[in-house]
């Protein structure tokens, strides 16, 4: 009985401390060794617990929930390879700066490395992909140990969310018996206990001397670009827009920047810059003197090529806390300061600069021309992958969310997602750029109450079919648009496509699967569409059904490649005429 009391109060105080820190959600995968954590999380009245059978999908589900809530979500699993299945989601969380609290149950020390079942080395198993690891002490209920477990809970929660957010891993060794006793007094700790969650942190800002230096440096330039890459800070949107307005500079807005949608002014937003910069002549002749970048590196490959071919462009890369996100290894000046505050500081000095007005109008005109080329046939047959984006945005309701898959879908989003006054959040897993766990992550976003539309390819859909279980278990509202081109469509744009002897087996990888049967197995609705009227009708209906809806859009890889290349050629010709005007 003494062991059970120690176990119950130890775990109870740990969970209660997380609740005091405002944790509200935990994702649990069933197992025996994790019984104390699982049952006590489920028992706490202020914790929403989600149960997922597959740890790999569970990790991504928690990732999506944490992305949406922008606060730590806990993961609980048993010992052994269960914890190893979290690895892809932990890696993604680390690189995309999403706070997770990974709680792995373990065998006690005497059962390690002696051939006991379901026992692997879980010590610091995620290595460089967590912000902090702690091997927890064996449960005790002395006042000293209850203070200890609360302090670790508080530290873990704050470490996950403070600075650049990310995952934290705590490993819990438990001896049998594993069942807690909820009949005990003070299961969650003594009344009136003062929480450890009394930490506070401030924003980084440039001091007066640093700001003066930046101001003087900018005064030597005429042509600049403000770039906003993937980021989820909605407080940053208006300050960036105001900075661009005062500086009279174009904003190259990544599709994941949250700048292409909403009620803010979009006159200076260049959403078609990826298509514009596919023109090599423009990359050469329209070289900016400087770039101020907020957020992660943009999705756009042509933007990257512009930087690679012009390594002397002065880059100011703004990071709220810290980081080194410059994959080209070009010279860059990193500004570690709160992005919103920096914009406000620079606006105060904007009258001292005299940037080239012709430069701005040139980008705006190029954007108009390019957009016209991209959307001119958006309702024509056959269905084209890029226009799935433009047609979806026409049908998506206010305050909904779009989750975009990697490989081809995110690149089509970059090209075909035009600015809109609708308030639509856009999510993706761009930390490690993988195709795994996309269904689960999107469902995690949907779990926060948002109406989510996931767009992904057939390979990505297949890769995470287990994730659909959560939609069935919790009757979740999500529509999934599957671009089915029978394989890896993005490889058709790469040099591998020029090697037909090996292309289909190694890169094309057609699945030849009937997804309708799978969707029905999970209780969802399945529709395959072959024209835009049906597409719009099915999407519109799905937003009223509040259920799992899978919409399959069948396309042909080679037709899609040819169509995209025709678009690029048309845009290039139109922009070449503009180049002559702005010599």
Automatic annotation (TrEMBL):
<feature type="domain" description="Menaquinone biosynthesis protein MenD middle">
    <location>
        <begin position="220"/>
        <end position="404"/>
    </location>
</feature>
<keyword id="KW-0808">Transferase</keyword>
<dbReference type="GO" id="GO:0009234">
    <property type="term" value="P:menaquinone biosynthetic process"/>
</dbReference>
<dbReference type="Pfam" id="PF02775">
    <property type="entry name" value="TPP_enzyme_C"/>
</dbReference>
<keyword id="KW-0460">Magnesium</keyword>
<comment type="pathway">
    <text>Quinol/quinone metabolism; menaquinone biosynthesis.</text>
</comment>
<dbReference type="GO" id="GO:0070204">
    <property type="term" value="F:2-succinyl-5-enolpyruvyl-6-hydroxy-3-cyclohexene-1-carboxylic-acid synthase activity"/>
</dbReference>
<dbReference type="InterPro" id="IPR011766">
    <property type="entry name" value="TPP_enzyme_TPP-bd"/>
</dbReference>
<comment type="pathway">
    <text>Quinol/quinone metabolism; 1,4-dihydroxy-2-naphthoate biosynthesis; 1,4-dihydroxy-2-naphthoate from chorismate: step 2/7.</text>
</comment>
<keyword id="KW-0464">Manganese</keyword>
<keyword id="KW-0479">Metal-binding</keyword>
<dbReference type="Pfam" id="PF02776">
    <property type="entry name" value="TPP_enzyme_N"/>
</dbReference>
<comment type="subunit">
    <text>Homodimer.</text>
</comment>
<feature type="domain" description="Thiamine pyrophosphate enzyme N-terminal TPP-binding">
    <location>
        <begin position="14"/>
        <end position="125"/>
    </location>
</feature>
<dbReference type="GO" id="GO:0030976">
    <property type="term" value="F:thiamine pyrophosphate binding"/>
</dbReference>
<dbReference type="InterPro" id="IPR029035">
    <property type="entry name" value="DHS-like_NAD/FAD-binding_dom"/>
</dbReference>
<comment type="function">
    <text>Catalyzes the thiamine diphosphate-dependent decarboxylation of 2-oxoglutarate and the subsequent addition of the resulting succinic semialdehyde-thiamine pyrophosphate anion to isochorismate to yield 2-succinyl-5-enolpyruvyl-6-hydroxy-3-cyclohexene-1-carboxylate (SEPHCHC).</text>
</comment>
<dbReference type="InterPro" id="IPR032264">
    <property type="entry name" value="MenD_middle"/>
</dbReference>
<feature type="domain" description="Thiamine pyrophosphate enzyme TPP-binding">
    <location>
        <begin position="439"/>
        <end position="553"/>
    </location>
</feature>
<protein>
    <recommendedName>
        <fullName>2-succinyl-5-enolpyruvyl-6-hydroxy-3-cyclohexene-1-carboxylate synthase</fullName>
        <ecNumber>2.2.1.9</ecNumber>
    </recommendedName>
</protein>
<dbReference type="Pfam" id="PF16582">
    <property type="entry name" value="TPP_enzyme_M_2"/>
</dbReference>
<dbReference type="GO" id="GO:0000287">
    <property type="term" value="F:magnesium ion binding"/>
</dbReference>
<dbReference type="InterPro" id="IPR004433">
    <property type="entry name" value="MenaQ_synth_MenD"/>
</dbReference>
<dbReference type="GO" id="GO:0030145">
    <property type="term" value="F:manganese ion binding"/>
</dbReference>
<keyword id="KW-0474">Menaquinone biosynthesis</keyword>
<dbReference type="InterPro" id="IPR029061">
    <property type="entry name" value="THDP-binding"/>
</dbReference>
<keyword id="KW-0786">Thiamine pyrophosphate</keyword>
<comment type="similarity">
    <text>Belongs to the TPP enzyme family. MenD subfamily.</text>
</comment>
<dbReference type="InterPro" id="IPR012001">
    <property type="entry name" value="Thiamin_PyroP_enz_TPP-bd_dom"/>
</dbReference>
């Amino acid at each position: 009985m003494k062991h059970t009391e120690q176990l119950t109060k130890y775990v109870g105080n740990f969970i209660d401390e997380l609740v005091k820190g405002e944790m509200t959600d935990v994702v649990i995968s069933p197992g025996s060794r994790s019984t104390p954590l699982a049952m006590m999380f489920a028992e706490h009245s202020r914790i929403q617990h989600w149960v997922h059978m597959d740890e790999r999908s569970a990790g991504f589900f928690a990732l999506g929930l944490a992305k949406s809530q922008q606060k730590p979500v806990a993961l609980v699993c048993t010992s052994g390879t269960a914890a190893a299945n979290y690895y892809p989601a932990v890696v993604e969380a680390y690189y995309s700066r999403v706070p997770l609290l990974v709680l792995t149950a373990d065998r006690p020390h005497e059962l390690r490395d002696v051939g006991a079942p379901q026992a692997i080395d879980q010590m610091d198993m995620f290595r460089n992909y967590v912000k902090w690891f702690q091997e927890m002490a064996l449960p005790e209920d002395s006042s000293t140990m209850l203070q200890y477990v609360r302090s670790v809970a508080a530290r873990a929660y704050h470490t996950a969310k403070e600075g650049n957010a990310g995952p934290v891993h705590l490993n819990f060794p438990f001896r049998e018996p594993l069942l807690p006793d909820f009949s005990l007094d003070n299961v969650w700790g003594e009344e009136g206990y003062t929480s450890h969650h009394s930490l506070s942190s401030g924003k980084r800002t440039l001091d007066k001397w640093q700001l003066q230096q930046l101001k003087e440096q900018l005064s030597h330039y005429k042509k600049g670009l403000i770039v906003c890459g993937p980021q989820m800070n909605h407080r940053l949107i208006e300050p960036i827009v105001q900075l661009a307005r005062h500086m009279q500079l174009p904003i190259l807005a990544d599709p994941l920047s949250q700048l292409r949608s909403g009620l803010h002014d979009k006159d200076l937003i260049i959403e078609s810059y990826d298509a514009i910069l596919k023109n090599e002549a423009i990359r050469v002749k329209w070289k900016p003197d400087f770039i101020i970048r907020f957020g992660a590196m943009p999705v756009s490959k042509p933007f990257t090529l512009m930087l690679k071919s012009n390594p002397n462009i002065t880059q100011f890369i703004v990071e709220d806390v810290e980081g080194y996100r410059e994959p080209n290894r070009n010279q860059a000046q990193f500004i570690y300061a709160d992005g919103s505050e920096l914009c406000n500081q620079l606006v105060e000095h904007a009258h001292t600069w005299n940037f080239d007005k012709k430069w701005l109008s040139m980008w705006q005109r190029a954007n108009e021309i390019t957009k016209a080329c991209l959307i001119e046939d958006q309702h024509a047959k056959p269905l084209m992958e890029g226009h799935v984006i433009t047609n979806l945005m026409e049908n998506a309701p206010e305050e909904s969310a779009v989750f975009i898959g990697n490989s081809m879908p995110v690149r089509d989003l970059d090209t075909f997602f035009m600015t809109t006054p609708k308030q639509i959040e856009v999510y993706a897993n761009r930390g490690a750029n993988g195709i795994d766990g996309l269904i689960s992550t999107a469902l995690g976003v949907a779990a926060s109450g948002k109406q989510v539309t996931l767009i992904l390819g057939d390979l990505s859909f297949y890769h995470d079919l287990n994730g659909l279980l959560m939609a069935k278990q919790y009757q979740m509202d999500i529509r999934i648009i599957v671009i089915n081109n029978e394989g890896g469509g993005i490889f058709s744009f790469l040099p591998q496509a020029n090697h037909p002897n090996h292309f289909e087996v190694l890169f094309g990888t057609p699945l030849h699967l009937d997804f309708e049967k799978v969707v029905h197995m999970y209780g969802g609705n399945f529709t395959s569409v072959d024209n835009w009227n049906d597409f719009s009708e099915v999407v519109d209906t799905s937003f009223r059904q509040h259920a799992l809806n899978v919409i399959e859009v069948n396309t042909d890889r080679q037709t899609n490649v040819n169509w995209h290349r025709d678009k690029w050629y048309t845009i290039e010709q139109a922009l070449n005429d503009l180049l002559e005007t702005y010599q």
